[in-house]
Amino acid sequence: MKWLSPYYLMLFGSMGILSLLQAQETLPNFKVKDLGKQGVQVSWLNPFKTCMQLSVQRSTDSIQFKTILNAQTPNMYDNGFVDKAPTERPLYYRINYVLDGGKFYFSTIQSTGLSLEPIPSTTVWKPSKFVYCNGKGTPTIQLP
Questions:
Q1: pLDDT class for 92, splitting at 50, 70, 90?
Q2: What is the total count of domains within the chain?
Q3: Could you tell me the pTM of the whole model?
Q4: Domain enclosing residue 48, as ranges
């Protein structure tokens, strides 16, 4: 049994190191990285072998998107490009892909600037009107 401990240590150590590595996103997710003056890197992994068309769209307001790239080989698994984007930031990107049979999908919107996710509101605890302790310290439940 003692001979197993080095193997477990090596296994868990390698799992810990691998968990720190950042993997490339698969569609419908993708990765956007701001390269500064060089542009914006957009990359993705395409698990759909039946992808007939894939286009990358850009927007400055996250509403009006324009196609900036139509992939020459849309069914290629590992893909990406560098957008020689305008200097204005933030920029918003999404991917539109069409699968065999005509079904089309839009990815989630990714930004080079601030996150699009809403800031979660903190809920403040409020005492109940119906469950409380009376003057003697006994819990009281009053149904409406």
A1: very high
A2: 1
A3: 0.60
A4: 25-111
Is position 14 within any domain?
no
| Inside any domain, residue 70 | yes
Cα–Cα dist 110/15, whole Å: 29
Is residue 68 pLDDT above 90, yes or no? yes
Q: Is residue 122 part of a domain?
A: no
Report which of 84, 109, 82, 81 is spatially closest to residue 95, judged by C-alpha positions: 109
- Tens-digit pLDDT profile for residues 10-67: 655 555 554 444 444 456 678 998 888 888 999 988 888 888 999 999 998 889 999 9
- Domain-located, residue 83: yes
d(CA 41, CA 51): 22
Q: ∠ CA 33-93-32 to the nearest 5 degrees?
A: 15
Let me know if 104 is exposed, middle or buried by CB neighbors in 10 A (0-12, 13-18, 19+).
exposed
Are 24 and 31 in contact by the 8 Å Cβ rule? The answer is yes
Measured in whole angstroms, how far is the alpha carbon of residue 91 from the centre of its chain? Answer: 16
Residues in the chain: 144
Mean pLDDT taken over the chain: 79
CATH code for position 31: 2.60.40.10
